């Protein structure tokens, strides 16, 4: 009998602990879903345990054409994991992150005294992908030096190439060729179109995808926009816009991994999120130019032409610079991502 009462008391204690932590863990998930993801698919699922949080890939959201190896999907999970770590520190939890071979990320969470908060936490809701034409103003060299010092995880490397440099021009030409290949690929444009949200009501209804305003398009009924958009997704139109946007940027940032594994993609995502949040704090805008990393033939050329060290894998390309803020993209309700 005594044993049974002890068992009940212990159980009640554990339950109270979980209940007390639950709002904190939910808060962490709320911050996690503000992370960027390819085509804004939000390919994550979260499971809350007693003293840990799991981030699982939601493979129903994979982009089989643009991201056949799910590299960008796991990078997106890494971005979300970094937000969890920053939110955990904010609430006084220490974190320890591990990635299983199937890409499930476990974040052990322990409430401790003296956990240091990060100033990057405040940037989570402010960060955004900004696809507009930038102001053409260069980022000062001391800020670029600080950018290169942002701590990268595992074997992730960061390179920054200034506008007009040889490397900047190489990336620009490869983006141009990448656009030409991707825009001529019906499967690519079909996949892209399926994630486009052409007006406010469809953007609100799904809470995901690429809203018309985030790609600088006017709002239109879907039945009118869908056939029309094809005439904009052409190599010529895409390149005209992108070349002007790249030219208006100060630098191109490249992130690489050493072995191109799931664990490294997650580490790259966490490192990327640090770069995005730190540059946001400096009022620097960013947008992606991943075409040369997505297409195997161009990736090889990128490696050789940039003289990357043997075995280094170009994975994420960003343009950065100064710009006006743009409207924020939407997110699904957190409940939809909770297991
Ligand atoms: C791994 C990854 C790859 C991405 N690739 C592209 C890209 O090729 N082109 C692009 O315009 N945006 C790209 N994005 C940005 C997403 O479309 C963006 O994060 C998403 O629409 C949500 O918008 P937000 O970043 O403003 O919150 C990428 C984001 C991630 C994390």
Outline the secondary-structure elements.
Layout: H1 2-32, E1 44-48, E2 52-57, H2 71-90, E3 93-99, E4 105-111, H3 141-147, E5 157-162, H4 166-183, H5 186-194, E6 196-197, H6 200-206, E7 210-211, H7 222-229, H8 235-247, E8 251-257, H9 262-281, E9 285-288, H10 291-294, H11 296-305, E10 313-321
Parallel strand pairs: 6-7
Antiparallel strand pairs: 1-2, 2-4, 3-4, 5-8, 8-10, 9-10
Helix pairs in contact: 1-2, 2-9, 4-8, 4-11
The protein binds flavin mononucleotide.
Q: How would you describe this structure in keywords?
A:
339 residues; alpha+beta; four-stranded antiparallel beta sheet; binds flavin mononucleotide
Descriptive notes:
The structure is a single chain. With 339 residues, this protein is an alpha+beta fold. It is 43% helix and 16% strand. The protein contains eleven helices and ten strands. It has a four-stranded antiparallel β-sheet. It has a four-stranded antiparallel β-sheet with strand order 5-8-10-9, with helices on both faces. A two-stranded parallel ribbon has the order 6-7. Helix 1 crosses helix 2, helix 2 crosses helix 9 and helix 4 packs antiparallel against helix 11. The radius of gyration is 21 Å and the shape is globular. The model has no long low-confidence stretch (mean pLDDT 94). The site of flavin mononucleotide has 17 residues, from helix 2 and strand 9.
